[in-house]
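Usage

Read records sequentially. Each one opens with the input sequence:
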Amino acid sequence: MAGGGIGIEYSFRALPRMLPGLILCMVFGWAALQWDATTHGWSVDYKEAERLLSIAGKEGGAFAPFADYTAKSKESFALKEAEYKTKIDEHKAALGALQAGQAKPKEPKKPAKPHLLKESEYNDLAQSKEMPGKFSFGNKIIQFQLTYVAMLLLVGMLIRNTVGVAEVFKAGTIAARPIIKPGIIILGGYYLWSDLLKVGAIGLGLVVTFVLGTQILISYWGRRSKVDEGLAGVMAAGVGVCGVSAAVAVAPVVNAKPRDFFYAIGTILLFGTLALFTFPYIGQALNMSQPVFGAWAGTAILNTAQLVAAASWYGHEALLTANVINIVRVGFIPLIVLWTIYFYVVQPAIAAGGEAQKVNVWQVVREKFPIFILGFFIIVTMNEYGMFVQSERDILGKELLKLFFAIGFAGVGLNIAFDDLKKAGGTAFVIGVVAATLKAVLSAVAVMAIGAEVFAIK
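and closes with the structure output:
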Protein backbone atom coordinates (compact mmCIF):
# COMPACT_ATOMS: atom_id res chain seq x y z
CA MET A 1 0.00 0.00 0.00
CA ALA A 2 1.40 3.38 -0.94
CA GLY A 3 2.22 5.90 1.64
CA GLY A 4 0.11 8.69 0.23
CA GLY A 5 2.90 10.70 -1.31
CA ILE A 6 5.20 10.74 1.69
CA GLY A 7 7.88 8.67 0.00
CA ILE A 8 7.26 5.46 1.96
CA GLU A 9 5.55 2.25 0.89
CA TYR A 10 3.55 0.65 3.71
CA SER A 11 4.05 -3.10 3.43
CA PHE A 12 5.54 -5.99 5.37
CA ARG A 13 8.48 -5.87 2.99
CA ALA A 14 9.17 -2.23 3.91
CA LEU A 15 8.72 -2.82 7.67
CA PRO A 16 12.42 -3.60 8.47
CA ARG A 17 13.40 -0.29 6.88
CA MET A 18 10.75 1.66 8.82
CA LEU A 19 11.06 -0.12 12.18
CA PRO A 20 14.11 1.73 13.65
CA GLY A 21 12.55 5.15 13.00
CA LEU A 22 9.15 4.06 14.28
CA ILE A 23 10.74 2.78 17.50
CA LEU A 24 12.61 6.09 17.84
CA CYS A 25 9.32 8.01 17.48
CA MET A 26 7.64 5.73 20.03
CA VAL A 27 10.43 6.30 22.58
CA PHE A 28 10.50 10.04 21.85
CA GLY A 29 6.70 10.22 22.14
CA TRP A 30 6.69 8.25 25.41
CA ALA A 31 9.32 10.58 26.92
CA ALA A 32 7.26 13.63 25.90
CA LEU A 33 4.13 12.14 27.48
CA GLN A 34 6.05 11.58 30.73
CA TRP A 35 7.14 15.23 30.62
CA ASP A 36 3.51 16.21 30.04
CA ALA A 37 2.17 14.10 32.90
CA THR A 38 4.84 15.35 35.32
CA THR A 39 4.47 19.06 34.53
CA HIS A 40 0.67 18.84 34.56
CA GLY A 41 0.89 17.11 37.94
CA TRP A 42 3.09 19.87 39.32
CA SER A 43 0.71 22.49 37.89
CA VAL A 44 -2.27 20.87 39.65
CA ASP A 45 -0.18 20.60 42.83
CA TYR A 46 0.55 24.33 42.46
CA LYS A 47 -3.17 25.18 42.43
CA GLU A 48 -3.86 22.97 45.45
CA ALA A 49 -0.87 24.39 47.34
CA GLU A 50 -2.01 27.91 46.44
CA ARG A 51 -5.48 27.12 47.83
CA LEU A 52 -4.03 25.71 51.05
CA LEU A 53 -1.70 28.69 51.53
CA SER A 54 -4.66 31.04 51.03
CA ILE A 55 -6.73 29.20 53.66
CA ALA A 56 -3.79 29.11 56.05
CA GLY A 57 -3.23 32.83 55.55
CA LYS A 58 -6.81 33.53 56.63
CA GLU A 59 -6.40 31.28 59.67
CA GLY A 60 -3.19 32.74 61.00
CA GLY A 61 -0.85 30.41 59.09
CA ALA A 62 -2.13 27.21 60.67
CA PHE A 63 -2.39 24.00 58.60
CA ALA A 64 -4.71 21.17 59.64
CA PRO A 65 -3.06 17.78 60.29
CA PHE A 66 -2.69 15.72 57.11
CA ALA A 67 -5.28 13.16 58.30
CA ASP A 68 -7.89 15.91 58.76
CA TYR A 69 -7.00 17.40 55.34
CA THR A 70 -7.61 14.07 53.55
CA ALA A 71 -10.74 13.23 55.57
CA LYS A 72 -12.38 16.56 54.77
CA SER A 73 -11.63 16.17 51.03
CA LYS A 74 -13.03 12.63 50.99
CA GLU A 75 -16.18 13.72 52.79
CA SER A 76 -16.79 16.53 50.30
CA PHE A 77 -16.22 14.17 47.36
CA ALA A 78 -18.63 11.57 48.82
CA LEU A 79 -21.41 14.19 48.91
CA LYS A 80 -20.76 15.11 45.26
CA GLU A 81 -20.79 11.45 44.23
CA ALA A 82 -24.13 10.86 45.95
CA GLU A 83 -25.57 13.86 44.12
CA TYR A 84 -24.15 12.56 40.84
CA LYS A 85 -25.77 9.11 41.33
CA THR A 86 -29.14 10.78 41.88
CA LYS A 87 -28.73 12.77 38.66
CA ILE A 88 -27.70 9.63 36.75
CA ASP A 89 -30.87 7.85 37.88
CA GLU A 90 -32.93 10.84 36.74
CA HIS A 91 -31.05 10.87 33.42
CA LYS A 92 -31.79 7.15 32.81
CA ALA A 93 -35.45 7.71 33.62
CA ALA A 94 -35.56 10.64 31.20
CA LEU A 95 -33.97 8.48 28.46
CA GLY A 96 -36.55 5.75 29.10
CA ALA A 97 -39.37 8.23 28.67
CA LEU A 98 -37.84 9.78 25.55
CA GLN A 99 -40.23 10.01 22.61
CA ALA A 100 -39.41 10.04 18.92
CA GLY A 101 -38.05 13.36 17.76
CA GLN A 102 -37.13 14.59 21.23
CA ALA A 103 -33.55 15.64 21.92
CA LYS A 104 -31.48 13.46 24.24
CA PRO A 105 -30.99 14.99 27.70
CA LYS A 106 -27.40 15.85 28.50
CA GLU A 107 -25.56 13.21 30.49
CA PRO A 108 -24.58 14.49 33.98
CA LYS A 109 -20.90 15.17 34.42
CA LYS A 110 -19.15 12.84 36.81
CA PRO A 111 -17.40 14.76 39.64
CA ALA A 112 -13.64 14.69 39.48
CA LYS A 113 -11.78 13.22 42.40
CA PRO A 114 -10.19 15.90 44.57
CA HIS A 115 -6.50 16.37 44.00
CA LEU A 116 -4.56 15.84 47.23
CA LEU A 117 -0.94 16.62 47.90
CA LYS A 118 1.28 13.75 48.98
CA GLU A 119 1.80 13.61 52.73
CA SER A 120 5.48 14.56 52.53
CA GLU A 121 4.71 17.53 50.24
CA TYR A 122 1.79 18.64 52.43
CA ASN A 123 3.95 18.54 55.55
CA ASP A 124 6.79 20.42 53.82
CA LEU A 125 4.30 23.09 52.70
CA ALA A 126 2.83 23.33 56.19
CA GLN A 127 6.30 23.80 57.66
CA SER A 128 7.82 26.20 55.11
CA LYS A 129 4.65 28.16 54.19
CA GLU A 130 6.25 28.68 50.75
CA MET A 131 5.36 27.38 47.31
CA PRO A 132 7.74 24.55 46.24
CA GLY A 133 9.89 25.45 43.24
CA LYS A 134 8.88 22.43 41.15
CA PHE A 135 5.19 23.35 41.55
CA SER A 136 5.90 26.89 40.29
CA PHE A 137 7.98 25.47 37.41
CA GLY A 138 5.18 23.11 36.36
CA ASN A 139 2.64 25.92 36.50
CA LYS A 140 4.82 28.16 34.28
CA ILE A 141 5.33 25.34 31.77
CA ILE A 142 1.56 24.91 31.43
CA GLN A 143 1.01 28.67 31.25
CA PHE A 144 3.42 28.84 28.29
CA GLN A 145 1.68 25.77 26.78
CA LEU A 146 4.91 23.76 26.60
CA THR A 147 2.97 20.50 26.55
CA TYR A 148 4.00 17.20 24.95
CA VAL A 149 2.94 18.61 21.56
CA ALA A 150 5.27 21.59 21.82
CA MET A 151 8.15 19.50 23.17
CA LEU A 152 7.90 16.91 20.40
CA LEU A 153 7.88 19.61 17.73
CA LEU A 154 10.51 21.91 19.23
CA VAL A 155 12.95 19.22 20.37
CA GLY A 156 12.41 17.20 17.19
CA MET A 157 13.12 20.24 15.04
CA LEU A 158 16.20 21.05 17.14
CA ILE A 159 17.56 17.51 16.69
CA ARG A 160 16.87 17.50 12.94
CA ASN A 161 18.66 20.82 12.38
CA THR A 162 21.68 20.27 14.67
CA VAL A 163 22.95 16.72 15.05
CA GLY A 164 20.56 15.48 12.36
CA VAL A 165 18.60 12.24 12.03
CA ALA A 166 20.67 9.20 11.07
CA GLU A 167 19.80 7.58 7.74
CA VAL A 168 18.65 4.38 9.45
CA PHE A 169 15.85 6.31 11.22
CA LYS A 170 14.61 8.53 8.36
CA ALA A 171 12.15 6.13 6.71
CA GLY A 172 10.48 5.35 10.03
CA THR A 173 10.17 8.97 11.11
CA ILE A 174 8.46 9.79 7.80
CA ALA A 175 6.17 6.76 8.18
CA ALA A 176 5.23 7.86 11.71
CA ARG A 177 3.52 11.06 10.59
CA PRO A 178 0.28 9.49 9.26
CA ILE A 179 -0.18 7.74 12.64
CA ILE A 180 -1.92 11.00 13.61
CA LYS A 181 -4.90 9.89 11.48
CA PRO A 182 -6.04 7.00 13.75
CA GLY A 183 -6.10 9.61 16.52
CA ILE A 184 -8.45 11.72 14.40
CA ILE A 185 -10.69 8.66 13.87
CA ILE A 186 -11.07 7.91 17.59
CA LEU A 187 -11.92 11.55 18.24
CA GLY A 188 -15.28 10.60 16.75
CA GLY A 189 -16.26 9.32 20.21
CA TYR A 190 -16.63 12.96 21.31
CA TYR A 191 -19.16 13.94 18.64
CA LEU A 192 -22.89 13.58 18.06
CA TRP A 193 -24.27 13.99 14.56
CA SER A 194 -26.20 17.08 15.66
CA ASP A 195 -22.97 18.85 16.63
CA LEU A 196 -21.11 17.51 13.62
CA LEU A 197 -23.76 18.74 11.20
CA LYS A 198 -24.08 22.12 12.94
CA VAL A 199 -20.35 22.89 13.04
CA GLY A 200 -19.79 21.07 9.74
CA ALA A 201 -22.34 23.29 7.98
CA ILE A 202 -20.55 26.43 9.15
CA GLY A 203 -17.25 24.72 8.34
CA LEU A 204 -18.49 24.08 4.81
CA GLY A 205 -19.11 27.79 4.42
CA LEU A 206 -15.62 28.58 5.71
CA VAL A 207 -14.05 25.97 3.43
CA VAL A 208 -15.85 27.23 0.33
CA THR A 209 -15.15 30.88 1.13
CA PHE A 210 -11.57 30.81 2.38
CA VAL A 211 -10.04 27.47 1.48
CA LEU A 212 -11.39 26.81 -2.00
CA GLY A 213 -11.40 30.57 -2.60
CA THR A 214 -7.66 30.71 -1.89
CA GLN A 215 -7.00 27.94 -4.40
CA ILE A 216 -8.93 29.78 -7.11
CA LEU A 217 -7.15 33.05 -6.25
CA ILE A 218 -3.69 31.47 -6.53
CA SER A 219 -4.63 29.71 -9.79
CA TYR A 220 -5.62 32.96 -11.52
CA TRP A 221 -2.85 35.03 -9.90
CA GLY A 222 -0.26 32.46 -10.94
CA ARG A 223 -1.51 32.51 -14.54
CA ARG A 224 -1.43 36.33 -14.71
CA SER A 225 2.08 36.33 -13.22
CA LYS A 226 3.18 33.69 -15.78
CA VAL A 227 4.20 31.22 -13.07
CA ASP A 228 4.84 27.73 -14.46
CA GLU A 229 1.51 25.87 -14.38
CA GLY A 230 2.99 22.83 -12.61
CA LEU A 231 4.23 25.01 -9.76
CA ALA A 232 1.10 27.19 -9.65
CA GLY A 233 -1.16 24.13 -9.60
CA VAL A 234 0.45 22.38 -6.64
CA MET A 235 0.89 25.71 -4.83
CA ALA A 236 -2.82 26.54 -5.26
CA ALA A 237 -3.96 23.15 -3.99
CA GLY A 238 -1.51 22.98 -1.10
CA VAL A 239 -1.90 26.52 0.21
CA GLY A 240 -5.60 26.68 -0.59
CA VAL A 241 -6.90 23.38 0.69
CA CYS A 242 -4.88 21.08 2.92
CA GLY A 243 -1.15 21.19 2.51
CA VAL A 244 0.97 18.32 1.29
CA SER A 245 -1.90 15.85 0.66
CA ALA A 246 -3.64 18.20 -1.76
CA ALA A 247 -0.36 19.07 -3.50
CA VAL A 248 0.38 15.37 -3.97
CA ALA A 249 -3.13 14.77 -5.32
CA VAL A 250 -2.94 17.42 -8.06
CA ALA A 251 0.75 17.03 -8.99
CA PRO A 252 0.06 14.43 -11.75
CA VAL A 253 -2.77 16.55 -13.20
CA VAL A 254 -0.53 19.57 -13.79
CA ASN A 255 2.54 17.49 -14.68
CA ALA A 256 4.49 19.10 -11.84
CA LYS A 257 8.24 18.67 -12.01
CA PRO A 258 10.11 17.55 -8.86
CA ARG A 259 11.41 21.12 -8.52
CA ASP A 260 7.87 22.54 -8.68
CA PHE A 261 6.66 20.09 -6.06
CA PHE A 262 9.49 20.87 -3.63
CA TYR A 263 9.09 24.64 -4.09
CA ALA A 264 5.39 24.32 -3.25
CA ILE A 265 6.01 22.00 -0.31
CA GLY A 266 8.70 24.38 0.97
CA THR A 267 6.20 27.25 0.96
CA ILE A 268 3.50 25.13 2.62
CA LEU A 269 5.84 23.86 5.34
CA LEU A 270 7.34 27.31 6.00
CA PHE A 271 3.96 28.98 6.45
CA GLY A 272 2.54 26.01 8.35
CA THR A 273 5.51 25.87 10.72
CA LEU A 274 5.29 29.60 11.43
CA ALA A 275 1.54 29.25 12.00
CA LEU A 276 2.04 26.27 14.31
CA PHE A 277 4.34 28.22 16.63
CA THR A 278 2.51 31.58 16.47
CA PHE A 279 -1.23 30.88 16.15
CA PRO A 280 -1.72 29.65 19.75
CA TYR A 281 -0.17 32.86 21.11
CA ILE A 282 -2.05 35.05 18.62
CA GLY A 283 -5.24 33.28 19.70
CA GLN A 284 -4.49 34.04 23.34
CA ALA A 285 -3.65 37.67 22.54
CA LEU A 286 -6.99 38.03 20.71
CA ASN A 287 -8.75 36.30 23.62
CA MET A 288 -10.12 33.57 21.35
CA SER A 289 -12.14 30.87 23.04
CA GLN A 290 -11.08 27.30 22.34
CA PRO A 291 -13.92 26.60 19.83
CA VAL A 292 -13.19 29.84 17.95
CA PHE A 293 -9.47 29.08 17.83
CA GLY A 294 -10.23 25.57 16.60
CA ALA A 295 -12.34 26.96 13.76
CA TRP A 296 -9.58 29.41 12.86
CA ALA A 297 -6.84 26.79 12.92
CA GLY A 298 -9.00 24.38 10.90
CA THR A 299 -9.51 27.01 8.23
CA ALA A 300 -6.15 28.77 8.10
CA ILE A 301 -3.35 26.29 8.95
CA LEU A 302 -2.30 24.43 5.85
CA ASN A 303 -1.27 20.90 6.81
CA THR A 304 -3.38 18.43 8.81
CA ALA A 305 -0.50 17.50 11.15
CA GLN A 306 0.32 21.15 11.89
CA LEU A 307 -3.36 22.02 12.26
CA VAL A 308 -3.94 19.19 14.75
CA ALA A 309 -0.76 20.10 16.63
CA ALA A 310 -1.69 23.78 16.99
CA ALA A 311 -5.26 22.96 18.08
CA SER A 312 -4.03 20.32 20.58
CA TRP A 313 -1.55 22.87 21.88
CA TYR A 314 -4.41 25.35 22.50
CA GLY A 315 -6.72 22.86 24.20
CA HIS A 316 -8.96 19.81 23.82
CA GLU A 317 -12.08 21.82 22.89
CA ALA A 318 -10.08 23.62 20.19
CA LEU A 319 -9.02 20.24 18.81
CA LEU A 320 -12.62 18.99 18.65
CA THR A 321 -13.75 21.99 16.57
CA ALA A 322 -10.63 22.07 14.38
CA ASN A 323 -11.09 18.40 13.58
CA VAL A 324 -14.61 18.95 12.20
CA ILE A 325 -13.42 21.81 9.96
CA ASN A 326 -10.48 19.67 8.83
CA ILE A 327 -12.77 16.73 8.00
CA VAL A 328 -14.82 19.03 5.75
CA ARG A 329 -11.65 20.47 4.22
CA VAL A 330 -9.97 17.14 3.51
CA GLY A 331 -13.22 15.91 1.96
CA PHE A 332 -12.73 18.61 -0.68
CA ILE A 333 -9.64 16.90 -2.15
CA PRO A 334 -11.59 15.18 -4.98
CA LEU A 335 -13.26 18.50 -5.81
CA ILE A 336 -10.00 20.43 -5.92
CA VAL A 337 -8.60 17.76 -8.25
CA LEU A 338 -11.61 18.32 -10.53
CA TRP A 339 -11.08 22.10 -10.34
CA THR A 340 -7.42 21.60 -11.24
CA ILE A 341 -8.37 19.43 -14.23
CA TYR A 342 -10.83 22.10 -15.39
CA PHE A 343 -8.49 25.07 -14.91
CA TYR A 344 -5.22 23.56 -16.15
CA VAL A 345 -6.43 20.98 -18.70
CA VAL A 346 -9.98 21.61 -19.93
CA GLN A 347 -9.95 25.43 -20.01
CA PRO A 348 -6.67 25.77 -21.97
CA ALA A 349 -7.84 23.09 -24.43
CA ILE A 350 -11.10 24.98 -25.07
CA ALA A 351 -9.24 28.30 -25.38
CA ALA A 352 -6.90 26.73 -27.95
CA GLY A 353 -9.87 25.52 -30.00
CA GLY A 354 -9.30 21.87 -29.16
CA GLU A 355 -11.57 19.32 -27.54
CA ALA A 356 -11.67 19.19 -23.75
CA GLN A 357 -10.46 15.95 -22.24
CA LYS A 358 -13.07 13.68 -20.68
CA VAL A 359 -12.73 13.09 -16.96
CA ASN A 360 -13.79 9.93 -15.13
CA VAL A 361 -15.28 11.66 -12.07
CA TRP A 362 -15.93 8.43 -10.14
CA GLN A 363 -12.34 7.29 -10.60
CA VAL A 364 -11.03 10.61 -9.32
CA VAL A 365 -13.28 10.50 -6.24
CA ARG A 366 -12.45 6.86 -5.55
CA GLU A 367 -8.70 7.38 -5.81
CA LYS A 368 -8.47 10.68 -3.95
CA PHE A 369 -11.08 10.41 -1.18
CA PRO A 370 -9.34 10.12 2.23
CA ILE A 371 -10.53 6.79 3.67
CA PHE A 372 -9.82 7.71 7.31
CA ILE A 373 -12.84 10.07 7.21
CA LEU A 374 -15.12 7.02 6.92
CA GLY A 375 -13.61 5.58 10.12
CA PHE A 376 -14.29 8.87 11.88
CA PHE A 377 -17.95 8.83 10.77
CA ILE A 378 -18.35 5.23 11.99
CA ILE A 379 -17.12 6.19 15.50
CA VAL A 380 -19.45 9.22 15.53
CA THR A 381 -22.39 6.95 14.65
CA MET A 382 -21.44 4.50 17.42
CA ASN A 383 -21.38 7.38 19.90
CA GLU A 384 -24.75 8.63 18.60
CA TYR A 385 -26.28 5.29 19.55
CA GLY A 386 -24.86 5.47 23.08
CA MET A 387 -22.10 2.89 22.64
CA PHE A 388 -19.59 4.97 24.64
CA VAL A 389 -19.94 6.21 28.22
CA GLN A 390 -17.91 9.18 29.43
CA SER A 391 -15.12 7.06 30.92
CA GLU A 392 -14.72 5.21 27.59
CA ARG A 393 -14.69 8.48 25.68
CA ASP A 394 -11.92 9.74 27.95
CA ILE A 395 -9.86 6.61 27.35
CA LEU A 396 -10.38 6.91 23.58
CA GLY A 397 -10.28 10.67 23.11
CA LYS A 398 -7.61 11.60 25.62
CA GLU A 399 -5.37 8.68 26.58
CA LEU A 400 -5.31 6.57 23.40
CA LEU A 401 -5.44 9.67 21.25
CA LYS A 402 -2.33 11.00 22.97
CA LEU A 403 -0.41 7.83 22.08
CA PHE A 404 -1.21 8.17 18.37
CA PHE A 405 -0.56 11.92 18.40
CA ALA A 406 2.71 11.57 20.31
CA ILE A 407 4.14 9.11 17.78
CA GLY A 408 2.88 11.17 14.84
CA PHE A 409 4.11 14.50 16.20
CA ALA A 410 7.51 12.95 16.92
CA GLY A 411 7.69 12.15 13.21
CA VAL A 412 6.57 15.65 12.28
CA GLY A 413 9.15 17.35 14.53
CA LEU A 414 12.02 15.16 13.34
CA ASN A 415 11.17 16.02 9.73
CA ILE A 416 11.01 19.83 9.98
CA ALA A 417 14.29 20.67 8.27
CA PHE A 418 15.32 24.27 7.68
CA ASP A 419 16.76 23.24 4.30
CA ASP A 420 13.30 22.08 3.21
CA LEU A 421 11.77 25.37 4.34
CA LYS A 422 14.19 27.21 2.03
CA LYS A 423 12.91 25.42 -1.07
CA ALA A 424 10.29 28.02 -1.85
CA GLY A 425 10.84 29.81 -5.12
CA GLY A 426 10.45 33.37 -6.35
CA THR A 427 7.10 34.73 -7.49
CA ALA A 428 5.20 31.55 -6.59
CA PHE A 429 6.49 31.80 -3.02
CA VAL A 430 5.26 35.40 -2.72
CA ILE A 431 1.86 34.47 -4.16
CA GLY A 432 1.52 31.49 -1.81
CA VAL A 433 2.53 33.36 1.34
CA VAL A 434 0.40 36.44 0.58
CA ALA A 435 -2.64 34.27 -0.18
CA ALA A 436 -2.14 32.13 2.95
CA THR A 437 -1.69 35.24 5.12
CA LEU A 438 -4.79 36.87 3.63
CA LYS A 439 -6.78 33.69 4.32
CA ALA A 440 -5.51 33.58 7.93
CA VAL A 441 -6.40 37.22 8.64
CA LEU A 442 -9.84 37.17 7.02
CA SER A 443 -10.81 33.80 8.50
CA ALA A 444 -9.78 35.04 11.98
CA VAL A 445 -12.12 38.00 11.59
CA ALA A 446 -14.90 35.72 10.34
CA VAL A 447 -14.72 33.08 13.10
CA MET A 448 -14.50 35.72 15.84
CA ALA A 449 -17.56 37.46 14.38
CA ILE A 450 -19.49 34.16 14.25
CA GLY A 451 -18.66 33.40 17.90
CA ALA A 452 -17.89 30.46 20.17
CA GLU A 453 -21.45 29.17 20.59
CA VAL A 454 -21.70 28.14 16.95
CA PHE A 455 -18.40 26.24 16.99
CA ALA A 456 -18.68 24.58 20.41
CA ILE A 457 -18.91 20.78 20.50
CA LYS A 458 -21.43 19.94 23.20
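Summary fields computed downstream for this record:
- The longest helix spans residues 15-58.
- Residues 1-7 have pLDDT under 50 and may be disordered.
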